[in-house]
Structure formats: structure tokens, C-alpha cells
Specification:
Length: about 230
């Protein structure tokens, strides 16, 4: 529902952005250029960190809600989590092997497999996100108030290590609407430690286009701190 608090939508935007970029990078990569394969492996590792974190966060903070209100939905989403987690681990091993393979023929075979399996993983993951935003969100909206959902959101964010949160925000920031960016940064300006706010503000400046950053900067500068 467009007028309800969206627990998972913003982070899902970031995950979609990350996976789309990763698939593009895999497709365009020169597998005989060690710098390119190393850069891809590093990017894959960064994205795997937030995919694993997101899965753990949902298991810890959201899954029991699905179980309480809609056990069939809980079972369906948990089965998808298990499948996707296993596919991600297999991909991590394959990327690591491909990045270290000295034989050109074997390297070509491995990276072909990476591209195909990454595409299948991303397609399945995007379907899973859509199910959470559809069937899963409907369950939460039918049984919890926006205030309760915001409390869940705070608990999730509080459990994420700062280094992992910055990776999330690296991909989320360009994928959010102006209002979502402003609400996030203005809330941090009011309530977060100054160093945390300044770090996320610097990340926004780095990740946004000059036009988008100027619009956000201007609005934030007009917002008084607490």
C-alpha cells in the first residue's frame, strides 16, 4: 500500500541496484585482464556481505512475524532464503576460483559459468524481493501498525555493523527517491552522532549526480539540527 510504512522497500532498491550493476560488470568484463577480474571479485564480495546481512536480518527480526500471522508465507520465504543462500555460497566459491585460475581455457570456462549462474541467481533473488514486497508486506500491514513496523526497522538498523551499513548505503543512495534520501539524512542530522551523519552525507555527495546532490544538500542545510 502506497500510504503504509515500507519496511523493506528502500533496502530492496539498493539490493536491486547492486545486483543489476554486478550482472552488467560480469557481462562486460575482460576475463584476461587480471585487474578487471580482481575488481569484479572485490565488488562481488562487497555485495555478498550485504546479501548475507539482509538474509540474517530478516531471519532475526521479520521471520517470526510471518510465522505468527501467516505460517505458509513464512515457510515459502524461508525456503527461498535457504535456496538463495546456498546459491550465493556456490557463486562465491566459483568467483574465487575463477579469479585465481591461471589457465586461459579453464578461466574462460569458469567465468562463463559465473555469468550464467549469476544471472540465474539475480533473477531468482529479484523474484524473492518482489514476493516479500507483495505477499510478505501484505501480511505485515494487515497485522502491525506503522509504529510497530518502524520499531522493527530501528531494531534491524541498530543490529547492522557500521561498515556493513555503509555498503548498504553505497548502493541504496542512488536508488532512493529525493524524499527517501532527505528523510534518511534529515533524521540522522537530528538524532545520530555528528560523525555518523557527516559520513553518510559525504557518501551521498560521492554517489549522487551533481544535480541530485545539490538539491539534497540545499534542503539539508536548511534543516536545523537538534
Amino acid at each position: 500500500m502506497h500510504n503504509r510504512f515500507d519496511l523493506l522497500g528502500p533496502v530492496h532498491k539498493g539490493l536491486r541496484h547492486a545486483l543489476h550493476g554486478l550482472c552488467f560488470q560480469a557481462g562486460a568484463m575482460d576475463i584476461d585482464d587480471a585487474r578487471e577480474t580482481r575488481a569484479f571479485a572485490e565488488e562481488f564480495h562487497r555485495i555478498a556481505i550485504i546479501l548475507e546481512s539482509h538474509s540474517r536480518d530478516e531471519d532475526a527480526h521479520v521471520h517470526h512475524l510471518y510465522e505468527s500471522f501467516a505460517p505458509e508465507t513464512a515457510a515459502k520465504l524461508e525456503a527461498e532464503h535457504e535456496t538463495l543462500d546456498a546459491e550465493l555460497r556456490a557463486l562465491q566459491d566459483l568467483v574465487k576460483t575463477g579469479a585465481a585460475e591461471p589457465s586461459a581455457d579453464r578461466r574462460a570456462e569458469l567465468w562463463y559459468d559465473v555469468r550464467r549462474r549469476l544471472t540465474r541467481f539475480a533473477a531468482g533473488y529479484l523474484q524473492h524481493l518482489e514476493r516479500e514486497e507483495g505477499e510478505g508486506a501484505e501480511v505485515l500491514w494487515a497485522n502491525l501498525t506503522d509504529a510497530q513496523l518502524k520499531e522493527v526497522s530501528v531494531n534491524i538498523r541498530s543490529s547492522i555493523p557500521p561498515s556493513t551499513m555503509m555498503i548498504f548505503l553505497h548502493y541504496m543512495m542512488p536508488a532512493l527517491t529525493f524524499k527517501e534520501r532527505y528523510d534518511m539524512l534529515s533524521g540522522m542530522k537530528q538524532f545520530a552522532p555528528k560523525e555518523a551523519y557527516e559520513a553518510v552525507r559525504a557518501l551521498a555527495e560521492d554517489r549522487l549526480s551533481p544535480r541530485d546532490w545539490e538539491a539534497l544538500r540545499s534542503r539539508l542545510d536548511a534543516t536545523a539540527a537538534s
